[in-house]
């Protein structure tokens, strides 16, 4: 990652084991903001973040949906999600390249 910047950080609360609806929405919002704040992703406005806290044996699952401009943007979005969840949450990268 020599030429890339470190991904922006979102909420640091992904290590919880119980969630309520408000926290779920806040986590999705914070991760979306990290994607928007990243200067390496061309256009993150077509990305949707869905967080299911009860998936994967209650470990949680984040699904990235939508369209991005390139394979690099797709990989970067996944990297941002992984960094911000400390790899504690399953990431499903279902982004499509335009």
Tell me what you see in this structure.
The structure is a single chain. The chain has a three-stranded mixed beta sheet. The protein has a single domain, classed as 2-Layer Sandwich (GMP Synthetase, Chain A, domain 3). The protein is α+β, with helices and mostly antiparallel strands and 98 residues long. The model has no long low-confidence stretch (mean pLDDT 81). The protein is built from three helices and three strands, in the order αβαβαβ. It is 36% helix and 22% strand.
In short:
This protein has 98 residues and is an alpha+beta fold.
Note the topology.
Layout: H1 21-37, E1 47-52, H2 55-58, E2 61-68, H3 71-84, E3 90-97
Parallel strand pairs: 2-3
Antiparallel strand pairs: 1-2
**Which structural class best describes the helix and strand composition?**
alpha+beta
What proportion of the residues form beta strands (DSSP E)? 15-25%
What is the CATH first-level class name? Alpha Beta
The string of secondary-structure elements, in order, is HEHEHE
Radius of gyration: 13 Å
Which stretches of 5+ consecutive residues score pLDDT under 50? none
The CATH topology is GMP Synthetase, Chain A, domain 3
Mean pLDDT rating: 81
General form: globular
Strand order of the largest sheet: 1-2-3
Please, how many helices?
3
What kind of sheet is the major sheet?
3 strands, mixed
Percent range of helical residues? 25-40%
Strand tally, please? 3
**Count of domain modules:** 1
> What is the CA–CA distance across the termini?
24 Å
- CATH second-level architecture: 2-Layer Sandwich
């Amino acid at each position: 990652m020599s030429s890339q910047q470190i991904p922006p950080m979102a909420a640091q609360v992904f290590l919880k084991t119980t969630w309520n609806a408000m926290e779920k929405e806040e986590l999705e919002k914070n991760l979306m903001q990290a994607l928007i704040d990243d200067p390496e992703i061309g256009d993150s406005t077509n990305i949707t973040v869905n967080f299911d806290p009860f998936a994967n044996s209650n470990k949680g699952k984040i699904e990235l949906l939508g369209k991005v401009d390139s394979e690099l943007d797709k990989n970067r979005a996944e990297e941002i999600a992984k960094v911000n969840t400390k790899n504690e949450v399953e990431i499903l990268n279902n982004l499509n390249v335009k």
